[in-house]
Write a structure and sequence with these properties.
single chain; 95 residues; alpha+beta; two-stranded antiparallel sheet; 3 helices; 38% helix; signal; DUF2282_membr; DUF2282 domain-containing protein
Length: 95
């Protein structure tokens, strides 16, 4: 990838990442553990990827999807604090 392509890709990534804030403010929230493989909305808790559509497992507790505010728990998902807690506990158990 040449320098111009790298700059364009970086600019696009910044522009797209800024789109989630207004969506969240518009009655949406991040819901962890409900996304189907390839259907996540952005980076995961493990930090193994930072892009939408890169999840490889259905309902991975570290992957999230934007859902209507107040519907996450009824879908069987977790909000960020609970997801982080479970992720950290699972890491500790593997050690």
């Amino acid at each position: 990838m040449n320098r111009k392509h790298a700059i364009a890709a970086a600019a696009l990534a910044v522009a797209l990442s800024s789109l989630t804030a207004p969506v969240q403010a518009g009655g949406k929230e991040k819901c962890y553990g409900v996304a189907a493989a390839g259907q996540n909305d952005c980076g995961n808790l493990a930090g193994t990827h930072s892009c939408a559509g890169q999840s490889t497992v259905d309902k991975d507790p570290g992957e999230w999807k934007l859902v209507a505010k107040g519907t996450c728990k009824t879908m069987g998902g977790m909000l960020k604090d609970e997801a982080k807690k479970r992720y950290n506990e699972s890491k500790a158990n593997k050690s």
